[in-house]
Amino acid sequence: MKKVLKQILTFSLIFIMVLSAVPVQAANPESSLTKQVVTLYPGKSNKITLFNSRYLNLGNIDTKNNSVSVTVRNPAIAKIEANNSGVFAYPKKAGKTLVTVKAGNITRKCALTVKEYVNPVVSVKVGNTTISGKKFDTDPYRVISYSKFANKKAKVTFNLKKGWSFQYDAISYFQKTWQKSEDVKNGSIVPIKGGSGFQIMTAVVNDKTGQVEHLLLWFK
Predict the structure, then answer these.
(1) What pLDDT is stored for residue 128 in this prediction?
(2) Percentage of the chain with pLDDT > 70?
(3) How far apart are CA 68 and CA 80, in angstroms?
(4) pLDDT, tens digit (0-9, with 9 covering 90-100), for 110-164
(5) What phi and psi, each to the nearest 5 degrees, are found at residue 135?
(6) pTM over 0.90, yes/no
(7) Which terminal residue of the chain has fewer beta carbons within 10 Å of its beta carbon, N or C?
(8) Pick the residue with more confidence: 43 or 197?
């Protein structure tokens, strides 16, 4: 028994010595791989600026750099564009691809997954009006009569399906002219005024897959 223990201890010591002799290489933060999921919205929604592109969070990368280059392993999945505002993905079809962005000496890579739109809504309530979640089956937005709520204050509540949560724990509203905009808690009172074109929106995320859906109420 002592002989067996001695062999085990000897082997363990050799193993530790070998490990300590191998240099440890930390991941290079300038070329680290990120994983992101974006939604491919229906054709009708993709005609709206809000839905047809998605910002890719690639860390501190200078997209104003004149030497910025973008490559996509499978361009049939998404078009990627870098401009002064950042790096944006324009989803084309569901699937996976690898995005590489280089700016100067910095390289960022993103394992991008494009998923079809999924309805996360049980119902939406604006004042005393309830919008069925089924209304969001084919599109992430609903057009609502502005005149019905003009210059009124209404409690706005998005009720989500199980497994979905608010990405920023808030809903946002905007007047058409953008002179008035604010982020408030879901279920807050919202002053609906400023004319047709008033919008209320929120972003929700699937807790399991990480898929984000952007929901919009458009008062016209």
Answers:
(1) 96
(2) 85
(3) 12
(4) 999 999 999 999 999 999 999 999 999 999 999 999 999 999 999 999 999 999 9
(5) -65, -15
(6) no
(7) N
(8) 197
Q: Which amino acid is at 163?
A: G
- CA gap 43, 187 in Å, rounded: 30
CA–CA gap between residue 128 and residue 141 (Å, rounded): 19
pLDDT digits 0-9 by tens, 12-39: 333 333 333 334 444 455 677 899 999 9
Cα–Cα distance measured from residue 161 to residue 81, given in angstroms and rounded to the nearest whole number: 33
What's the chain's length in residues?
Answer: 220
Q: How far is C-alpha 25 from the geometric centre of its chain's CA atoms?
A: 31
Structure confidence by residue, pLDDT tens digits, 74-103 = 999 999 999 999 999 999 999 999 999 999
Number of other residues whose CB lies within 10 A of the CB of residue 144: 19
DSSP string, the chain: -HHHHHHHHHHHHHHHHHHHHSPP----TTS-EEEEEEEE--HHHHTSTTTS-EE---SS--TTSTT-EEEES-TTTEEEEEETTEEEEEE-SSEEEEEEEEETTEEEEEEEEEEE----EEEEEETTEEEEGGGGSS-SEEEE-HHHHTTEEEEEEEEEPTTEEESSS-EEEE-TTSSSEEEE-TT-EEEE-SSTTEEEEEEEEETTT--EEEEEEEE-
d(CA 37, CA 34): 10
